[in-house]
UniProtKB/TrEMBL annotation, chains A, B:
Organism: Fluviispira sanaruensis
Record-given protein name: Ribonuclease 3
EC class: hydrolase
HAMAP family: RNase_III
Family under the similarity heading: Belongs to the ribonuclease III family.
Catalysis performed (reactions): Endonucleolytic cleavage to 5'-phosphomonoester
Role of this protein: Digests double-stranded RNA. Involved in the processing of primary rRNA transcript to yield the immediate precursors to the large and small rRNAs (23S and 16S). Processes some mRNAs, and tRNAs when they are encoded in the rRNA operon. Processes pre-crRNA and tracrRNA of type II CRISPR loci if present in the organism.
RNase III domain: residues covered: 32-163
Location relative to the cell: Cytoplasm
Keywords, comma-separated and alphabetical: Cytoplasm, Endonuclease, Hydrolase, Magnesium, Metal-binding, mRNA processing, Nuclease, RNA-binding, rRNA processing, rRNA-binding, tRNA processing
Amino acid sequence: MLEKRLTLLRTHFKELNFNKLSRVFPQIEANIDKLGEIQGHRYQDKKLAAISLVHRSSLVYWPTDKSGIFSNERLEFLGDAFLSFFVASEAMIEHRSLQEGDLSRLRAALVGTENLALKSRDLGIGECLLVGKAEMNSNPQRRDNVLADAFEAVTAALLLDAGEEKARAWLLKIFSEDLLAGKDTLLKFDAKSKLQQWTQGIIGVPPVYKAIGTEGTPQETFFIVAAFIGETEIGRASAASKREASKKVADKIIEKIESGELTKEMIVSFFGKEK
Amino acid sequence: MLEKRLTLLRTHFKELNFNKLSRVFPQIEANIDKLGEIQGHRYQDKKLAAISLVHRSSLVYWPTDKSGIFSNERLEFLGDAFLSFFVASEAMIEHRSLQEGDLSRLRAALVGTENLALKSRDLGIGECLLVGKAEMNSNPQRRDNVLADAFEAVTAALLLDAGEEKARAWLLKIFSEDLLAGKDTLLKFDAKSKLQQWTQGIIGVPPVYKAIGTEGTPQETFFIVAAFIGETEIGRASAASKREASKKVADKIIEKIESGELTKEMIVSFFGKEK
């Protein structure tokens, strides 16, 4: 049944004018091969692979008639849904004692922008992508979005071209560690809430996260974020996005708390009073 | 592959102590048969069907040892993900020209609490459900949640017991009209945003929705919601929940605008000034 529906869906993407696309982006052939290597699959329908690699920003300055040319957003929509179902079912298989709330949180962590962008980077999907230069250089949050969306789009391309079985097998390879980690993953992604609860129990307010600078090169900028209680810095970390950095800070601080390096008494003294 | 994973998942629900459950809720056997009729499927594993019908509120006053007794929340989690993937793929098959944003909105409308509660009511799933009395009598929003969650849970039970093909076929029957309606469904569900945009373009603010009373019986209460511009009521409607009622109000007002019964000039005069 699913395979029959996928066959129907596949026909929708035949409208791509591949020759036209590859005249403007001659690198697309090589990029499709690269994607095939990453996914361990030789695409029967090159159009599907091609579409999954076209970010809309690459078409902003499309030089001629745009008919038959489109971007990966519809594939991204499909891939997102398939991925969520995949992660939901696998998380349940792996963790028979996790309740719905924890399963939801685990799924959110695994299919969240941050984690999918990470997978895209690790696999080298970014290098296959056709994307406007401005998009990849400017804002790290936007870059993460592009990479996460691309992960979903290439997942859908594989689903449509190779079938459900191969797509699931590919995802299983990529997410098996995250799935096994399970609760640890949950805790890691949730360090900020954990820290917030802790300081609120002591002084009634959460720590304040501030971006205090950047490091790295103009091509590869990292944001430094520090967490403060009152005027006192209780930890700092750097990452490609402020959000990621603030999670890393929370991680570090949680470790300090667990090791006894940071105590309730210190938090009270930094803040000046108890709750 | 999917079927193999589903087989693995199925084993997780063997832990239910069916005899214990049916001693406290002897009606469960009849309810499972009813569910089977609704879904056109005879359950091989009665436990799966049983679990999908146990709302947690029915276990609040569980009289004895609770081991081996649990509710439908994990099935609901799985059903939700499967349903989302189903609707995403079918919406794309049906509407090849809809872009990602519209596809997302269509999916949200179809799998939203309101629509799933409606399906549950139409199919009679509510009558099979084991649920605390207070849960179904008190708050219509909570009742809708229970019914929508139950729809997801019985979808997952069917998926696990009958397989992906039968589950998809069942869903296709239920949602085919909504899927065909497509854009109309979108517009209907989106009347509130449409109306908001319209009044904001004229006077800079959205209409204000107020619950102005109830009607019906204590067993079946309907909320009356009216929309105001300034002091002037521009429409009212009643429904089982405030949210549903305010959508119906917006629907009615959109109709009034389209028929010319409500004009920009009127909105300006009700509000006292233009944007």
